[in-house]
Amino acid sequence: MYTDPSPAKPAKPLKRRPLGGKTMNLTNNDIEKGYWYHLKEPEFPPEVISYPKEYSGGSKLCLACTQLDIKRSEQIKLSKEWCELLPTFTNLQFIWFYSRVTQDLFDAVCDNPNIVGFYTKWSGNAITDISKLEKLQKLRYLHMGSCTSLDNIDVFMKMNQLIVLEIENFKKISDISVLSGMKQLEGLGVMGDIWTTQRVNSLEPISKLTNLRYLLLQNLRSNDKTLASLVSLKQLIRLDAPFWFPKEDFKLLRESLPNLKYGSPLDTEILRYFGKY
Questions:
Q1: Integer distance in angstroms from the first to the last C-alpha of the chain?
Q2: Could you tell me which of 18, 102, 122, 166 has the fewest CB atoms within 10 Å of its CB?
Q3: CA–CA separation, 22 vs 182, rounded Å?
Q4: Would you say 143 and 118 are in contact if contact means Cβ atoms under 8 Å apart?
Q5: Closest CA to 29 of 272, 276, 238
């Protein structure tokens, strides 16, 4: 059975811009917490549902429609029903998947031209092709969790409308040079998950993204073993990076990024614990 993993309600309620507002830029809370941080008010995400009859027709939908404790035939029928319906929801703007996403479910979302925000918790080896993302011309915010069989992310080069891109445990992707042209990005995550380290050749392509306000590199290793190229990100306010990078790099980033307010280079207590300060 599915269990909602959302954290407890924060002590102080955070505000998020209204859906459909004129501005698409990140707010201070988006930068500090990350765009997809769970907010109870307003519901972001809304309550998790599994069956189409539970959907009210609103702009936000949070689904756990796979991995259910039902017969296999019923599961197949349910998934097929969602695949048929998702492209038809004209009011839908934001969608979360909190259970495993199949290729068919992913493609069905890509057939809905109104999607602005798309979040997948994980797909494992189920998704092998994300080229249909190109169809989502209104998409601004994308998070894709654990996607272990995907070996091509070239579609991102065609998605210049994205403001936030977060990819987690893209096991077969080590060359992230396609990201270097996404200069409009304000939020970026290239991360491993709790079990698997994300390995990339270098962070140099990210150094070109000078509009970044936040950068998430949790459980990531680069073959060149350095964060130094990130000194060009002068607008960066939050940076989360693993403490296995060199001590000198954290010092360099503290000295070179004038707007940095949150994240690993400023966490002196942990840096001292790991001998990095």
A1: 44
A2: 18
A3: 22
A4: yes
A5: 238
- Domains, the chain, in order of start with CATH, read 33-273 (3.80.10.10)
Q: Extract the tokens encoding 148.
A: 């272990």
Phi-psi region of 45 (alpha: psi -120 to 50; beta: other; left: phi over 0): beta
- Contact 253/260 with Cβ under 8 angstroms? yes
Per-residue pLDDT of the chain (277 residues; tens, 9 = 90+): 334 344 444 434 445 544 443 346 899 999 999 999 998 778 999 999 999 999 999 999 999 999 999 999 999 999 999 999 999 999 999 999 999 999 999 999 999 999 999 999 999 999 999 999 999 999 999 999 999 999 999 999 999 999 999 999 999 999 999 999 999 999 999 999 999 999 999 999 999 999 999 999 999 999 999 999 999 999 999 999 999 999 999 999 999 999 999 999 999 999 999 999 8
User: What is the pTM assigned to this prediction?
Assistant: 0.91
CB 168 within 8 A of CB 191: yes
Residue 215, classed as helix, strand or coil, is: strand
Report the distance separating Cα 121 and Cα 101, nearest Å: 8
SS3 238: strand
